[in-house]
Specification:
Layout lengths: L2 H6 L3 H8 L6 H12 L7 E2 L2 E2 L6 H6 L15 H6 L2 H15 L11 H10 L10 H16 L2
Antiparallel strand pairs: 1-2
Bound molecules: 2-acetamido-2-deoxy-beta-D-glucopyranose.
Amino acid sequence: MVPALLLALALFAPLAAAQQTGPLSVECLGCICEAVSNCNRTLTCSGDVCGLFRITWAYWSDAGKPVLQGDNPGADGAYARCTVDPYCAALTVQQYMTKYSQDCNQDGQVDCTDFARIHRLGGYGCGAPLDPVYEQKFVTCINHVQTLG
Ligand SMILES: *[C@@H]1O[C@H](CO)[C@@H](O)[C@H](O)[C@H]1NC(C)=O
């Protein structure tokens, strides 16, 4: 799927709204969900991950337990309700990255490549090798959005 097309569709609004809440651009959020789930917003919870960003409970907790409006972080199911919602999931990613932002690949800048690494590898040890399928999807997407300017 062409990321630009995807971003122009229904996912654009929630990701764009989440752009203001942390260091990731809408393109960066789009390429991370593309790499991790093809940005499939119908994904619910399976195994220990939920939603289009495939977020674990520990990740959501480290992000400060963001919730849907009117929900309570301590309530049963608050984690799943947030992480299957595109805006709340993107907000979770933003808050996680605000906390763990770092130059994983030691190239002198903190950018989307670092955020993609932190998303997959966590806040500690994000310089480790990435799963090649995830890395390839991410690189293809980010190169594509960069050529669009
Ligand atoms: C999205 O995920 C659902 C649930 O796993 C699946 O049935 C569907 O085929 C997926 N859609 C795409 C476009 O991958």
